[in-house]
């Protein structure tokens, strides 16, 4: 039971750390959008790209915050209900596995639209920017899947230890 209790604490702590990091990143990106939006030509690709990025930041923040609020509401749940906590920790893992589907598409579409003026100005810089975007996306997917695998392994080893005892 102590192993499950420590796994619950560490998973909750790690999810709060990720939420703070995501919120800070979204605030930085939103600040960038607010700064550059007045400079963009109205109704152009850059303008819509910036709006999409802003909307994507709001979506990411809403999903992350709702996830954290859910953690706050369940923190009083008794540790003795092992099945509940197994499902809850598995839910955390599934959220991390689904990052490519809810996090990246809107954000990357907005960034690509924002970069469209570079196609005519400097095609090489545009291609390099797209490669960087793809690499950052791969990195984001990798770190989230790695964290999901860590959570799953910790949960599996905790369950194994509980059944052996």
Which key terms come to mind for this protein?
7 helices; 87% helix; 165 residues; mainly alpha; 0% strand
Tell me about this structure.
This protein is mainly alpha-helical. Helices cover 87% and strands 0% of the residues. It contains 7 helices and no strands. The chain has helices at 2-36, 45-74, 82-97, 99-102, 104-114, 117-121, 123-164. Helix 3 runs antiparallel to helix 7 (123-164). The protein is elongated and about 65 Å long. The N and C termini lie close together (10 Å).
Question: What order do the helices and strands come in, and which of them pair?
Answer:
Elements: H1 2-36, H2 45-74, H3 82-97, H4 99-102, H5 104-114, H6 117-121, H7 123-164
Helix pairs in contact: 1-2, 1-3, 1-7, 2-5, 3-7
* pLDDT averaged residue by residue: 83
Strand content: under 5%
Number of helices: 7
Give the overall form. elongated
Using the CA coordinates, give the radius of gyration: 20 Å
Total number of beta strands: 0
Low-confidence stretches: none
Order of helices and strands: HHHHHHH
* Helicity level: over 70%
For the terminal residues, how far apart are their CA atoms? 10 Å
Instruction: Give the biggest beta sheet.
Output: none
Strand-pairing-aware structural class: mainly alpha
């Amino acid at each position: 039971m102590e192993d499950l209790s420590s796994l619950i604490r560490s998973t909750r702590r790690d999810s709060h750390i990720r939420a703070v990091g995501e919120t800070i990143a979204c605030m930085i990106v939103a600040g960038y959008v607010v700064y550059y939006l007045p400079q963009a030509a109205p109704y152009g690709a850059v303008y819509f790209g910036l709006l999409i990025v802003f909307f994507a930041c709001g979506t990411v923040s809403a999903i992350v915050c709702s996830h954290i609020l859910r953690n706050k509401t369940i923190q009083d749940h008794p540790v003795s209900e092992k099945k509940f906590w197994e499902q809850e920790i598995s839910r955390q893992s599934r959220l991390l596995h689904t990052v490519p589907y809810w996090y990246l598409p809107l954000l990357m579409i907005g960034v690509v639209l924002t970069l469209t003026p570079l196609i005519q100005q400097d095609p090489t810089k545009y291609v390099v920017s797209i490669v960087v975007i793809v690499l950052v996306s791969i990195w984001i997917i990798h770190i989230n899947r790695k964290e999901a695998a860590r959570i799953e392994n910790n949960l599996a080893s905790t369950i194994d230890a509980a059944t052996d005892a």
